[in-house]
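Milestone M4 deliverable, item 7.
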Amino acid sequence: MNNARIVFMGTPGFAVASLNALHEAGFAIAAVVTAPDRPAGRGREIRSSPVKERALELGLPILQPEKLKDPAFIASLRALDADLFVVVAFRMLPEMVWAMPRLGSLNLHASLLPSYRGAAPINWAIMHGEVETGISTFLIRAEIDTGDLLLQEKCPIGPDETAGELHDRLMLSGGRLVVRTVRELLNGTLASTPQRDVADRVAARDAPKLTPANCRIPWNRSAQQVHDHVRGLSPSPAAWTEMIRAGKPPMHFKVLRTRLAHERTTLDPGAIELRGSSLYVACADGLVEMLEVQPEGKRRMSARELFVRIARCVPLRVRTDRGTARIVDSTLAPERTLRSKLKPLLVAGFSRSYQQNP
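Output delivered:
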């Protein structure tokens, strides 16, 4: 039944794989709905979404509504007479849209629902130290990510895998699952399952929008939690921390890669130790090796390159949530220990906000 008419809705690169998969499977895509062109980048040039760029290459009709309840958009959508809407990484749809096609609207979500409902399921799964996640297709209903399940597929998470790496794997497997879901829906061989029927088998955790507050590195947690936090936010939006330099403004920088040191330490959380060519930061129960960072407004670089450059010039104080620490540089000045008073990061509200997201 590949002659059924489908409207595809999506915006970022994650959705392009599903659009490609539907096209390659021979389904009739009546139109593509995506976000309006927006200014982006340092030059603020007007750019199209990745989905729009791919739709143009495929010669597909494109709709770019500013408002999803706009009467003109609703009329254009009805005129397409679609049997099914396929939604991947798009905006929350009003009922007048998702209820329009005779077969409903299916959505692809990058988690094993009902776990990790929300805007950032890939990031939060890694940040919480999950060893397995997956993808789900479901029928859209009024409350976000709560509709009846159609198909699910599990996917392991590597111990050092980043959100970017997992994103790319789920993007491709998601495209295949969308095709399978559409095919079985159109053939009438797919039954849906209410999420409440599987809720007792899945740990319910939310995946809220990422903010500067919940991207801050919690050095006062375990080394494993810090490592999971960093890789769960890499490469974007990236985990971050802040360092105080004597007589200069605090330095804000992103941490893009870390590695577990698998050893205990007597240093307080947030203390820095240089050993040979390696740089370690103390956590609540051990050390993590900091591998790659990006100072604000600068290029990506090795952590050692950044810290050695600064340590030659000024004493360092790394901001964290606990008292006093010793910042030990065993390479540049083996006879010298830099001492610092560690203070709460930024404002108390940031600290409280993070504590709400264990």
